[in-house]
Amino acid sequence: MDPNYDQESRSRSAPTGEIDNQPAEKKRRLTVEQVNMLEKSFEEENKLEPERKTELAKMLGLPQRQVAVWFQNRKARCKIKKIERDYDVLKACYDSLLAKHESVISENEKLKSKVFTLTEMLLPAAHQTQRNLQGKLNSKGDDETMSSSTALVPLANDHYFTNVDESFGWWVWPSNLM
Amino acid sequence: MDPNYDQESRSRSAPTGEIDNQPAEKKRRLTVEQVNMLEKSFEEENKLEPERKTELAKMLGLPQRQVAVWFQNRKARCKIKKIERDYDVLKACYDSLLAKHESVISENEKLKSKVFTLTEMLLPAAHQTQRNLQGKLNSKGDDETMSSSTALVPLANDHYFTNVDESFGWWVWPSNLM
DNA sequence: TTATAATGTAATTAC
DNA sequence: GTAATTACATTATT
User: Which residues are within 8 A (CB) of B14 and not within 5 positions of it... i.e. 6 or more apart?
Assistant: First the structure.
């Protein structure tokens, strides 16, 4: 026993309009021409004025109600498509920003190296201090910035400076130091 | 004369809610209890095995068909909700990354200033070149890093160095230079 | 399963 | 106030 459901429920006894030469079947799908016209109309204007509704209904041989329903459903579809598009756009923005971010992080590391090395060059006394500290903190010697130099001038051609012109494109190394 | 609305199909005479002892009406809505149980079942397991379908249908007094349809529609709803959630999550990630990015950009600017100033301190000859160039490129003098010093030591206390410990937390300025 | 049609209702708008 | 209309969720079909 299930008293809770009636199988027939869906039988559209509706008049189905004028062009109904078929024996009034379920008529669930709209014809391609009908959809095309509705689609075209929707594209022109997603809002359905009563006047346009009447006109469309007459033109397509559909009850106004059905035209209204179609527009509502079309609008709903439109909305979820929009959400998907929004997601894709945002994803692209995110990926782009992420790439930029990583590039800037990398530039940042280079700059830190430069600052470190320049400071080292500038302060021989500090350099001593730092070597002492490094002996305790970094005894495996995995940071090559520590071991390259103690003098001022020879570092000018060091690899730490190969990208200096990224930051100061107009900078020119004085020829006497090259 | 109001051709703008079709009365038919809107009538729906009183579904009267749940206690449907009237045999006639088209029982389209499920009762709250039915929905609750379906919802609970769906939460436990979004896949509907034939066995569970039968059981649920019997328990709720619904045709299996209707139970199956409910699960399918529920799944579809679930999917579009997921898209919305995904969007929100991604948006949060994006905003977070953007903030980080801006912070790194800012750090970057500071580092560039440091590199510039340190280089200036290090290379009096280059300093001359640079001042000449600046005279052409930047005659309004809107970059204060240009005008502060030419000597080596006095700069050590300058504001360009106030954040040095961000990059080298373990660094200690030698006391003789402070 | 996906897309689409139809229905149920609450909220909104206009008369 | 209430009829008309829309927006949104739900149910159903293909």
Answer: B25
The share of chain A scoring above pLDDT 90, in percent, equals: 26
Residue B22 maps to a domain: no
Chain A nearest C-alpha distance from B74 (Å):
16
Report whether pLDDT(B126) > 80.
Answer: no
CA of A46 to C1' of D13 (A): 26
Q: Give the separation between CA B115 and CA A163, rounded to whole angstroms.
A: 12
Length B18 CA → D14 C1' (Å): 30
The overall average pLDDT reported for chain B is: 68
Domain that holds residue B83: 32-140+150-177
pLDDT at residue B123, rounded to an integer: 73
Dump pLDDT digits (tens) for A86-103.
898 999 999 999 999 999
Count how many residues are written for chain B.
Answer: 178
Q: Is residue B23 part of a domain?
A: no
* Domain-located, residue B7: no
Domain count of the fold of chain A? 1
Tens of pLDDT, residues A60-93: 988 898 999 999 998 988 888 888 888 989 999 9
Domain at B126, CATH number:
1.10.10.60
97-116 in B: which are within 8 Å (CB) of A? 97-98, 100-101, 104-105, 107-108, 111-112, 114-116
CA distance A17 to A57: 9
Cβ neighbours of A87 in B, within 8 Å: 83, 86-87, 90
Residues 6+ apart with CB under 8 A from A171: A164, A165, B126, B130
> Which DSSP symbol is given to B145?
G
pLDDT digits (tens, 9 = 90+) for B74-98: 998 888 888 888 999 999 999 999 9
Residue B119: list chain A partners with CB under 8 A. Answer: 118, 164
